[in-house]
């Protein structure tokens, strides 16, 4: 089973009341600074080399797709299609009419 940082945090929170940071650091094989941060700060994510020792997946920055505005797990499935549908002629006419009515002259 894949261990996540959340699983690890759970283990640490469970073990912290009965073990010192020095003990935990020895057990997990990383400096207690990282363990302290994982326990104290839910948003903290340790550097990749620490993740490797802790056996949790490392995290890296991923580019956001400029078309869809999200990070795709792989290649963008629709590279050329914009996320907003193109308006039909009628819809364009309708919007222009609306703008004209609302804001007066053309
Ligand atoms: Zn995309």
Please give a structural write-up.
The chain is mostly helical and 106 residues long. The protein has a domain at 5-54. It has five helices and no strands. The protein has helices at 5-15, 21-28, 32-40, 48-54, 89-103. Residues 65, 67-68, 72, 76 line the site of zinc ion.
What ions, cofactors and ligands are bound? Answer: zinc ion
Which geometry do the CA atoms define?
elongated
Q: Please provide the count of β strands.
A: 0
Number of helices in the DSSP assignment: 5
Helix percentage: 40-55%
How would you classify the helix and strand content by structural class? mainly alpha
Q: How far from one another are the termini? A: 64 Å
Major sheet description: none
- Poorly predicted regions are none
CA radius of gyration is 25 Å
Portion of residues in beta strands equals: under 5%
What's the average pLDDT?
86
Order of helices and strands: HHHHH
